[in-house]
Amino acid sequence: MSHVKNVVKVEMSLFNSREEIKYYQIDLFDLNWMSIPFSTTYKIIKVDYKEHKAFDIYIRKKDTPEAVYLCTTSKVKRTNTSRTVIASRICSRLDGPPA
Amino acid sequence: MKYSIAILSLVAFPAIANVEITGSVEAKCIIQTTKAGSYGNPIASKLSTTPADGGVLPIIRYDVSIADSYIASITHPTSFSSSPSLTDTLAWTGSTSVTQTSVAGMSAYEAAKTVVGNTTNFNLTLAGSTWFSTASSATYGSAKPFPGGNYTAVVQASCIAK
Lengths: 99, 162
What we know:
Chain A has strands at about 5-15, 25-30, 40, 45, 50-60, 70-75, 85-95. Chain A is mainly beta. Chain A has a single domain (about 5-95), classed as Immunoglobulin-like (Sandwich), CATH 2.60.40.10. Chain A is elongated, with a radius of gyration of 15 Å. With about 160 residues, chain B is mainly beta. The N and C termini of chain B lie close together (about 10 Å). The model of chain B is unreliable at about 1-15 (pLDDT under 50). The interface between A and B is large, with 42 and 49 residues.
């Protein structure tokens, strides 16, 4: 829980189902996919294959009405072959009614 | 996913009365790479993931545990993320298709897909697994041969809550 006035805390859990990926980036967007400021311990976090990792993000209360998409995007590594690599992004919505 | 809001107990935490809201988020969508794609080089000026061109189509699997809650949004490349130095223009083409489904009704995804620019969107109306393949092709300007080296391009696969 946030101990800072006018700051909202969101707890999130990330599961890495991709063996070739070790790092994920956290982003927060509004409905038009414009970035919303937030704070977290690490915006790029290491998650080993088949591992769950919980993390918290902190949003200013005044920004919460605009915060819609909370996304994690895989960070792809440079390779030495001619290939396509897949960057995966999972986005959860924050703008719905309380569950 | 929506996030839940809980009101803190002021009895339990009398010193933090200003902290009122917390929430948790857990997505019900998982993206996995079933097959990594690779580029074939059928002619000197072309790189393509199409099997007929010697390439391998990347296969992406989406698992959703809640029906009608997510959009699969897949963007084929329009640039190389790494390559030798290129001095001429590139012409890119690409497309994304449903290749396999775990539920018969998902076969309708292909006909219902929408394409906006380089991005193909699929409305994941059913719970279960869907496999998508993305074709990608790059042709070097004026039929020039690609310089030797390694070429990498990124397919962006997103699962976005509705």
